[in-house]
Amino acid sequence: MAYDPNNVFARILRGEIPCKKVHEDEHTLAFHDIQPQAPVHVLVIPKGPYASFDDFSANASEAEQAALVRAVGKVARDLGVAEPGYRILSNIGEEGGQEVPHLHVHIFAGRRLGRML
Ligand code: AMP
After folding, report:
1. Which CATH number do you get for residue 102?
2. Is 35's C-beta closer than 6 angstroms to any atom of ligand 1?
3. I want to staple 55 with a disulfide (CB 3.0 to 4.6 A). Which of 14, 15, 50, 106 is the partner?
4. Would you give the DSSP letter of residue 83?
């Protein structure tokens, strides 16, 4: 999948549309999902132009990959959900249900989340 520089998260990264930011570092940004599906629903994205986890895992630098993993864990701890727990999820491609073509990791928490699917 070629990267579309006009996708909504690219526009958030450029400051063209607002977000409710919860974390930012050199390589990542995290913000509240606009249509939360749990009491806590936050998205963590890389700043680099990666269309999906597939693209990111193949092409991002080690520093970018480490930063994303660390940001997800830190955001969850900062939100106070590491205990009693949370779920991370990334939709990839058409059959994975991905709507926005910029890698994002969903963090869901704040209620008992039930089975995986
Ligand atoms: P996915 O189906 O995994 O691609 O999820 C895309 C997510 O992006 C959905 O949960 C949307 O609610 C969320 N979303 C779309 N536009 C925005 C926005 N402007 N700010 C925050 N979240 C958004």
Report:
1. 3.30.428.10
2. yes
3. 50
4. T
The answer to the question of residue 117 being in a domain is no
**What's the pLDDT at 117?**
82
Number of domains the chain contains: 1
Cα 11 to Cα 101: distance, rounded to the nearest angstrom: 12
116, pLDDT greater than 90: no
Structure confidence by residue, pLDDT tens digits, 39-81: 999 999 999 999 999 999 999 999 999 999 999 999 999 999 9
Residue nearest ligand 1's atom 12 by CA: 35
- Is residue 115 included in any domain, yes or no? no
Q: Is the CB of 19 under 6 A from ligand 1?
A: yes
Ligand 1 atom closest to residue 101's alpha carbon, by position in its atom list: 4
Is the distance from the beta carbon of residue 8 to the nearest atom of ligand 1 less than 6 Å?
A: yes
Q: CA triplet 93, 97, 103: central angle to 5 degrees?
A: 55
The pTM (predicted TM-score) of the whole model is: 0.98
